[in-house]
Amino acid sequence: MITESTLRALLDGDAAPCAMPDVLLLREYLQRGLPYGDPICLSFGETWDRVPPALAARLAETPVGSHGYQLSLYGLPRLRAALREHIAAGNGLTGGDWEVAVSWGGTRQSMFDFGRMVKDRTTSSRPVVLAAGPSWDYSGVFSPLGFTVRYLPLRPEHGFQPQREDLAAAVAKVLATPGEHLAMVIINAQHNPTAVNWSEQFVSAMVDTAVEHDAAILVDDAYFGVCDAGVTATSALRAVIERAPLVPWLGVRSMGKQFGCNGWAIGSMVAAPAVLSELVNRYRLHHGLMHAGPAQHAMAEWLESSDSADFLTRQSFELADTRQATVQACVEQLGHPRSAVHAGECTPYVLIEVPPAYEPEQYRADCFERTGVLVAPVWPWPYPGPESGATPLPYLRLYIAAGEKDVLEATRRMAEAGLTYR
C-alpha cells in the first residue's frame, strides 16, 4: 500500500494532479484524513516501494561522467550489451537480424515514435491498429496520430484466451470497411490485464496476419519477465524475427515492470537494424537527447550481476503464491464463485467478476468510499468507445504485485464493509 507520507509527497501542493480518476480519488481520500488507513492501490500498475534495495543502491555508485549527456542515441553501450544478452537468453534467440537500443523515456514514448514512422509510410487516410481487448491504453498512443484502433475480443467463456476466429473476424471487418486498411498488429503475449500467456500458435497467427496484409508489428513485452514460477513465457519476439523479416516491427520491453522501478523509465527497443536506426536517429531525436545516464549505469550493473536473475526467480515464486492467495481470499472472504475469479499465470493481475448487484463503476466507487481499497475496471482509463470493438465486461482488475499482505488486508476491509459477491 502507498503510505501517507509518500501520498502527500506526490500530491500535496498547488499544481493540479494528473486527471486520471484514480489520482483524483486518492487526493480526495487524503483530504478526508485517510479514514481507513493507508490506501491500498490494486488499480495502478505500481507499488512505489518494491524496487530491490541492491538495485536502488547502485544509483549511488554511478561514475561522475554518467551525469552528463550520453554520447550515443542508442543508449549506454554497456547497458545495450546487457540488454541484448538479457533479451536473447530470455527469448531463446540464437540468430536473426535484430538490434537493441535503450529506451529512457518509457515504452509509451517508443510506441508513439513507432506509430509516427508507420503513419509516415502509409498512404491510407484511415490506417487501423488491431489489438486484443480488454487491453492497455493503445488508443491513447495511436489515436492522436490518426490511427483507428480496433480490438478483437477476449472472452470470459474462453478463459480470456484469444481465438483465431475472432482474429479473422476482426481483420475481415477492417477489410470490409471502405477506406480502412490494416496498418499495425499489436502482440501482447503476456497479456495486460487478463494475465493470460498466449499460445505460440495464436502468436504465430497474429504474425502471419500482419505479414499477409503488409502490416507493421508492435510486440508489447512489458510483462515478458513477470510470470509465475514454472511458466514459460511465450516469445512473440522470436516468432516475429523468424516469421516476419520483411515487415517493419518493434519490440518494447520495460525494465521497470520487471524490477519495480517504473519511475526510471528504462527499457529496451528491439527491431531490425534499419528500422531501429530510423527510430533512434530520426524520430527520437525530434523530442529527446541522450540522458538518464545514472539509471542506465545502475541498470547495466544490475543486469550483469547474478542479483537480477536471483530477484526474478524469487519474484516468480512470490507472484505465484500471491496469485493463489488472492483467488482464495476472493472465494473465501468475498464469496466469489471460483468461476468468477480469473487467476491467469503471468503479469501481476487477477480479474474478478463484479458482484451481480453492482455496476462496475458503482462497485469501484463504493469500494474506495467504504474501505480505502482502489480497484480498477478491466478496461483501464481512458476507456475506449464501443465503436472500436471494446466489449464492456463486468470484471475488475486487481494489481497484486504489492504482495500477499496487502491483498489480504484489502479483501479483509472489503468483506467487513459487506462488499461481497452476494
Automatic annotation (TrEMBL):
Pfam families: Aminotran_1_2 (PF00155). It comes from the Bacteria. InterPro entries: Aminotransferase_I/II_large, LL-DAP_aminotransferase, PyrdxlP-dep_Trfase, PyrdxlP-dep_Trfase_major. Residues 128-379 form the Aminotransferase class I/classII large domain. Signal peptide: none annotated. Its cofactor is pyridoxal 5'-phosphate. The keyword Metal-binding does not apply. Keywords: Aminotransferase, Transferase. Gene3D superfamilies: Type I PLP-dependent aspartate aminotransferase-like (Major domain). SUPFAM superfamilies: PLP-dependent transferases. GO terms for molecular function: transaminase activity. CDD domains: AAT_like (cd00609). PANTHER family: AMINO ACID AMINOTRANSFERASE, L-GLUTAMINE--4-(METHYLSULFANYL)-2-OXOBUTANOATE AMINOTRANSFERASE. This is Pyridoxal phosphate-dependent aminotransferase. It comes from Allokutzneria multivorans. The lineage of its organism: Bacteria, Bacillati, Actinomycetota, Actinomycetes, Pseudonocardiales.
